[in-house]
């Protein structure tokens, strides 16, 4: 049981680091926690690669100001994990600033260097 709890904490730490990286515009941290081939689906249904998303952050087209977490659930099955989280996310996306009620389903895998995000699907709740 302790192993499962430790894995859940490790997964939670990675997902929280992603949010921290978004807020701090820390692309190096985002590089560490998100796999190179990850696919990110935004609330519009737009699918972006990690590189495309980071470019949008770099250019200021996606700017994240704050995040208030209202739900966080982790399920770990072996070397795969899924997180469902809800955040009130204050962000300016392509010129429109709002506090977005976002639900994210985040998929992770555990590799030789720990957990990494391989996919994320955001929707409004």
What does this molecule look like?
- By secondary structure, the chain is of the alpha+beta class.
- The chain has three helices and six strands.
- The chain has helices at 2-24, 27-33, 50-59, and strands at 34-41, 47-49, 62-77, 80-93, 96-111, 114-124.
- A six-stranded mixed β-sheet has the order 2-1-6-5-4-3.
- Strand 4 (80-93) and strand 5 (96-111) form a beta hairpin.
- Helix 1 (2-24) runs antiparallel to helix 2 (27-33).
- The longest helix is centred in the N-terminal third of the chain and has 23 residues, at 2-24.
- The chain is globular and about 45 Å long.
- The N and C termini lie far apart (32 Å).
Which key phrases capture this entry?
125 residues, alpha+beta
Count helical runs. Answer: 3
- Given the helix and strand composition, which structural class is it? alpha+beta
Q: What gyration radius follows from the Cα positions, in whole Å? A: 14 Å
The 3D shape can be described as globular
Helix-strand pattern: HHEEHEEEE
Main sheet attributes: strand count, strand direction, barrel closure: 6 strands, mixed
**Mean pLDDT score:** 96
Hey, roughly how much beta strand do the residues contain?
over 45%
Give the fraction of residues assigned to helices. 25-40%
**Strands in their spatial order, largest beta sheet:** 2-1-6-5-4-3
| Cα distance spanning the termini | 32 Å
């Amino acid at each position: 049981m302790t192993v499962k709890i430790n894995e859940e904490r490790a997964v939670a730490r990675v997902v929280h680091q992603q949010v921290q990286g978004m807020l701090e515009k820390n692309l190096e941290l985002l590089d560490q926690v998100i796999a190179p081939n990850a696919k990110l689906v935004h609330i519009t249904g737009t699918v972006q690669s990690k590189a495309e998303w980071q470019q949008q952050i770099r250019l200021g087209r996606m700017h994240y100001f704050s995040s208030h977490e209202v739900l966080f659930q982790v399920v770990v099955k072996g070397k795969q994990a899924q997180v469902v989280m809800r955040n009130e996310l204050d962000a300016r996306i392509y010129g429109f600033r709002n506090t977005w009620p976002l639900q994210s389903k985040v998929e992770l895998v555990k590799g030789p260097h720990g957990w990494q995000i391989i996919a994320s699907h955001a929707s409004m709740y």
